[in-house]
Amino acid sequence: EVVLVGGALALGMPIPIVPAQILWVNFLEDTFPAAALAFEPLEDGAMREPPRPRSARLLDRDAMLLVFGVGLVSDAVLLAVSYAIFTWTNDLALTRTIAFGGIGINALLFVFGIRSIRQPIWRSRPLANPWLLGAVACSLVLLISGLTLPALQPLLRTTALPAWGWALIGGIGVVELLAVELMKATFRMRRNGAHA
Prior knowledge:
196 residues; 0% strand; mainly alpha; single chain
């Protein structure tokens, strides 16, 4: 969210997310899927991998690039969308609502993309972890509640979304997932080229 906030300030527009939205996503929405990853079944081919050295980092170079690279792309997309919406509508509440929805949906879809760095999402058995599916469903309910419940809208500074707003949030999530899969494909091509 640093790029999103910093970029908004650099562009001279109001900040498109508020602290309550960041806390909602990071503490309420992300917690359940992150915990459910602990129950992820062993990845196919994992036992054929050589053991990592004791000095190896928990997150290798590819994992770090994936997290930070996709984070930058995600924030850049959210900044561009927020700038366009605010410029087009001059409606800060709508801009913040879509930015919040975009951050939330990105978090929910990102977890499916990172389940396996070696395999594309369609080969990583997306239904193999029922805990993850349940956690994402609960988090999706929290996101939708934050976007739609009148009691939460003043706290999160959200407003009712038009149909195109919901479609835009879904599109932001698709871009996030595509960014993850493109980076993973790049990693696979590099590894396959190294083994050739």
